[in-house]
Every structure is written in structure tokens, then in C-alpha cells.
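A note from the maintainers: we've had questions about how concatenated examples are separated. There is no special marker in the raw files; a new sequence line simply starts the next protein. For clarity in this README we add a label.
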Amino acid sequence: MPFPSPPPNWDREEISKFFDEARLNEFATFAHLTDDVARLLDIDRAYRVAISGLNHSQNWFSAFFVIRAHSNFLAACRMSWSGQIPESYALLRSCLENALYGLYLARNPDSRQTWLCRHDSEDSKKKVKKEFQIKALIELAIEVDAHEGDVTKILYDRTIDFGAHPNERALMQTLQIEDDAENIHFKVSYLDDDSDTLKQTLRFAAQVGICALSLFYTVYAESFQHFGVVDILSHAKDGL
């Protein structure tokens, strides 16, 4: 579908120009980093097939978290394709968290009410914060599937390092330092271009997307096998 013409005064605003530049970067990533993009397209397809097979599932509540994880994955793809590198990691963290919450609530269905009542009172909020700690959720993932749980922890920690928190590596991957005889110049990029950092981020997005679906596999194994999600993931993992 062709894009409509922009509204009046669109090109006068700096934020609009930024959006346009980001969109052009998305086109460039799609056109030039074809192998990385193809893998992400496979993972997106795996999510869509998985979601379409969740109707009438006994674990219907956790299906909401599959959808949210997919939405986070798509947002991270858009950020990374445009070159917004640290921002991508913040979204990928949320993707993993949705998978961890979905797994936890599938294993602990009585905790749904606790989660739903978070904003009923201060005590309810404290109860949710105490029960839904990431450390405990990752420990459950390791208990359910040692390999995928360990991978989840590694990936989650990396999201924190590279953008989900304002840590050193989040800044340094966007920072350029130039000096001359008189001055040191610091340049922080909002949008990366065709760099090794961009390629690494696309690869990491694929790893997180697969990891989240692998956690959901422990909840929906029969459905994932029946609808071919496992086969799509196996293909996406090749060479990763």
C-alpha cells in the first residue's frame, strides 16, 4: 500500500525529519542486510503462527503475554532497523519479561489474581513486586528448561548492559570521540547506519525473539509442534 502524502507542515518540524530519516534507515537495512532481515522475518512468522494456534488453549491467560512479547519484538525490529540501537535493547528486555511472566503465570495460575489486582491498593502493589521479581522468574525458567533458562539470563543481562538501563555500554556504542590540537569532540548518534554495531543488534534481536518463543514452547509445546512453530524456529536458529 503506497504511503499517503504527509500532512501540511510535516517537514518543518525536527521530530518529523527524524522520523523520516529513521524510516529511510529501515529501508536501507531491509535492502542491504538481507540475511539478518530474513532471519527476523522468519521469527516474526513464527510468532504469528504461534499466536494463531492459541485459540481455545487451556493456558489462555499466558497467550496475552505471547502477543505482548511479539509486539515488543516488532518494536525492537523497527528500532534496530532504523539504527536506534540502545532503544532496541530496552524493548528486547520487555520481550523477555513478557515471556518470563507468561511462563510464570502458566505454572502458577493462582497468581493471575495477584497480578490483575496490582493497582487495587498499596499492599496489592507490594505483593506483586515481591512475587514477580525477575530473579525468581529466571530461576523458574532454569528449573523448567535449564538451557533456555540460562540463555534467558545471559540475554536479559545484556539488554541491561546495552540500553535497557543507562549503563556505560549503552552510551559507548553510540559515542564517537575525535580530538585535534585544541579540542576533544564528542558525538553521540541518535541513528546508527550500516555498522558492525547495527549488525550485532540485529543478531541479538533474533536471539531474544527466539529465546522468548522457546520459553513459550515450555507452555505450548503441543501447539507449537502441531502448527510448525518448532520447524520455523529451527530454521531461524541455523547459523545463529
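[label: protein 2]
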Amino acid sequence: MALNKLLALTIAAMAFVSVPAVADNSRVKIQHAVDPKTSIESWVLQDDGVEVELIQISPDQARGFFLARGFNRGDVDYYAASCVFATVVRNQSPMTISYHLADWRYATADSVTRKLKLKDDWLREWQQRGVSKSAQIAFEWSQHPTNQTLEPKDWNQGMTTYQVPHGSQFDLTVKWKKGNKNYVDTIRGIRCAD
């Protein structure tokens, strides 16, 4: 609930603080915004009716969220060491879209390309670490779905994680399919919260 409230407040504030697009052609727009009250940053990619939004989640926010769901401090600190984002995908197009987070990649300043650490990767680790079943279920529901099909006007959200240092930047390449057409776009200069 706290994450949903934070997300709603952040999105509402972003409506008033959007800055000019950092990339813009006839089809693709990427906007960056900073919430004036919280300094939380967000990035929104818009391409042919599809929106991918990333909203920073600070390490303290991640810790608080999972401590409240039954995780112990050691496991929470382990998760919060990752770069965490609330990720929202919206289908504003008239066609069904689908995507697989396993196809998304991020690249760091050293040009190393990595796969996202997905929900199932985390769940395997939580099981090995002895995290309670109820905490694992809460975790599973908080993460962005790994495979998703969205009908027109549909959307979904959840957390995604990136294994980069806090405060560092990376570029995220996202892929999805709409009808028979594959799309690939890159959001550049995403910054991990400190």
C-alpha cells in the first residue's frame, strides 16, 4: 500500500514538473522528471501508444517496504543494495502488446550489458536464504510480472532491480511486441537513487 501511495503521489507531482523530452522523433519520446518535494526522479518512454515508466525507489524506501512485509533486516539490506525502480507499462494503443523482462537489457558506463535480475531469480534466493513463505508471497506480488500481455488501455506495475551502485547511471533497452511488429527502444541516463 505504501508503494502504491508513493507511486500515485509521484505520478501526480510529475504531471506538474515534466521537463522537455531528452529524445524526440516522430515516434519516440523520453521524458525525465524530478519530484520537487522528494527529489525522486522518473523516466517515461512513449512509443506508438506504449509507455514504459521507471520511478526511483530509494534504498530506505525498499527497506521499509519489505521490513513491513516480514523480511528480516539482513535480507532487506541485501535487496536494497540493488538499484530498485517502480516500473509501470501502459498500453495506450488500440492493439494488444506483450513483453518479456528477460529480453530487456541494461548497460552501464563501462558498456557492459546485463540482464535484469527477475522475480524468479530473487525467489530462488529467498528460498535458499530461508525467507518465510508469507514474505516470499508479498515479494512476488510486489515485483513486475516477468511476462505480460496488455490489452488496449491496460497497464501493470511492479518493482524491477538492476545490479549497479547507488547513484550510478545506466541505459535500459526495452523490447515489446505489438501485433506482428517488434519494438526496441533505449532509455538513456537512468540514475539509481542514492
